[in-house]
Amino acid sequence: MTRTPSVWVLPLLLLLTARGSANAGEAADLRDLSIGMSVASIPPEEYINLACAGKEGAKLAGWNDFQACPADQTGLHSLSFRFNDDLNPLAVLSDNYRGTKLGGHPVLLTGLVDGTGALQGIRIDTDPNARPFWRKKAYLLALIVRARYGEAGWSCRETEPHEGEVPVGGLLIKEHCEKRAGRRRLVLDREVYRRAGQPLSDFVNATRFIIEQTKGP
């Protein structure tokens, strides 16, 4: 079994919990972001480069402008954002802590906001444009997430590869996992493979983690 590199676990835990919770007595989901909180409560200086996810050029002045982003079929508005390095005391110590990273991995962050302005979900994707060194390790972020939320309770399934999809460095992974944690549904996907026709220098290696608020009991 692949072991989670302990050197990456601490940075992830710091980013997920160091700034406390928006709701007293409840652990934050990402820094000071908690599912269900009002975006009006998000400190404006903490996050930069707000924009409508998937809508190039649609930059936002702040979280309260979420309605400028088109809603999806579930009524959620998707906002991309980044960490503000100027407020990260670790950023001055090492390149490992600069930029928007979790567990050392460069990531893309998306907030999912409903029509009332409540943060209903957070999506974390490993950055497909990261340096090759990190792209080759992107699937390992999934192991760190599982260590953070506990190994028990995950329901996982492997997806069969499509025709022409082949291993990369001896690995072929297409895994989908879900877990219920209180009022949160955790969705974790990781992939490692090369598509048919892709050159040797190109490949798919990614982790996607979604934290979303569940409805009902």
List strands and helices in order, with pairings:
Elements: H1 6-17, E1 47-52, E2 77-83, E3 101-102, E4 105-113, E5 119-126, H2 132-135, H3 140-149, E6 155-158, E7 173-181, E8 184-193, E9 204-213
Antiparallel strand pairs: 1-2, 2-4, 3-4, 4-5, 5-9, 6-7, 7-8, 8-9
Helix pairs in contact: 1-3
Protein architecture, described:
Helices cover 12% and strands 30% of the residues. By secondary structure, it is α+β, with helices and mostly antiparallel strands. The chain has one domain (6-213). Strands 1, 2, 3, 4, 5, 6, 7, 8 and 9 form a nine-stranded antiparallel beta sheet that branches. The longest helix has 12 residues, at 6-17. It starts with 5 loop residues before the first helix and ends with a strand. The model is unreliable at 1-15 and 17-25 (pLDDT under 50).
Key phrases:
217 residues; alpha+beta; 9-stranded antiparallel beta sheet; 3 helices; 9 strands; 12% helix
Describe the structure concisely.
The protein is of the alpha+beta class and 217 residues long. Helix content is 12%, strand content 30%. It is built from three helices and nine strands.
The figure for the number of domains is 1
Q: Which class best fits the helix and strand makeup?
A: alpha+beta
Shape: globular
Average pLDDT metric: 85
Beta-strand fraction estimate? 25-35%
Estimated helix fraction: 10-25%
DSSP summary: helix tally:
3
Total beta strands: 9
Series of secondary-structure elements, N-terminal to C-terminal: HEEEEEHHEEEE
